[in-house]
Design goal:
about 260 residues; TIM Barrel; GP_PDE_dom; about 10% strand; 5 strands; alpha/beta
Length: about 260
């Protein structure tokens, strides 16, 4: 009898299991193919794109936060360097301007700065007085400080401006005003008023003499007259560079504005 291979007359089982495994493996490979980049260039482009996507959000938020801080500094930066609260002529709401009462009330309000108008009498005395205020006191709309003597100015009766009663409603000299306020505020501004009949002649020297006499270390002389400002700077060796810069800077700005207006016309 013929037999199909084997030992001892037994048939060998067909290698079904091996064939099936091989078939399954083949099916698995075909069903889930793995595709790799075709070139290194494509792979690099993918890496660069991913890096760019990862860096964009931090950079965007960095500039957003920077802009936010800049806007905040614009709105709140003045808190680190607050402006000076300056009382023009003292507390001119509750007392007549440039009187000792007005200065006392301003100091009581703890202002940072007091502005004092400076005018010169006919005999050369400096008073804390403005032509406009003198006209209110005298009732004469044409009178000027420069035409009154020191005695006449001291005899002026200043009207009360509030219900409160003050005993120092007199027009002070510049020396008296500076002695009162200079040590109690951060800045004293002397607004020099130029008027007839002497105008700027000798006014700078008189103002600096009063400043030295009262030992005012925080005085800033302000003048709308260019020639008077030059005289003050020329005669004084103690004027701070800041004061020079402020005065001349504002003068230049005024001239630039005038030039722009003329060009428009």
């Amino acid at each position: 009898m013929a037999t199909s291979g084997g030992v001892g007359g037994r048939r060998r089982p067909p290698p079904l299991l091996q064939t099936n495994r091989t078939g399954l493996q083949g099916v698995t490979r075909n069903r889930f193919p793995i595709s790799l980049p075709s070139s290194r260039r494509t792979f690099r482009l993918i890496i660069i794109s991913l890096a760019f996507i990862a860096l964009v959000p931090p950079i965007f938020f960095h500039f957003r936060l920077r802009r936010f801080h800049q806007m905040r500094l614009r709105k709140c930066g003045w808190l680190n360097n607050p402006p000076l609260v300056c009382a023009h002529g003292g507390d001119s709401t509750n007392a007549f301007p440039n009187t000792m009462a007005a200065y006392h009330l301003a100091l009581r309000s703890r202002v940072d700065c007091i502005e004092i108008d400076v005018s010169r009498s006919s005999d050369g005395a400096l008073f804390a007085l403005h032509d406009r205020d003198l006209q209110r006191i005298s009732g004469n709309n044409t009178t000027k400080v420069g035409y009154l003597s020191m005695k006449e100015i001291k005899e002026l009766e200043v009207p009360h401006q509030s219900v409160q009663v003050f005993h120092d409603q007199k027009i002070p000299t510049i020396e008296d005003a500076l002695k009162l306020v200079s040590s109690s505020v951060r800045q004293v501004i002397l607004d020099a008023k130029v008027g007839p009949p002497s105008y700027e002649k000798g006014l700078a020297k008189d103002i600096l003499s009063a400043v030295d006499g009262s030992q005012c270390k925080n005085c800033l002389v302000w003048a709308k007259s260019d020639s008077l400002a030059r005289d003050v700077i020329k005669l004084s060796s103690d004027i701070a560079e800041y004061g020079k810069e402020v005065k001349w800077k504002m003068k230049l700005e005024q001239r630039e504005c005038k030039n722009n207006e003329q060009m428009k016309e």
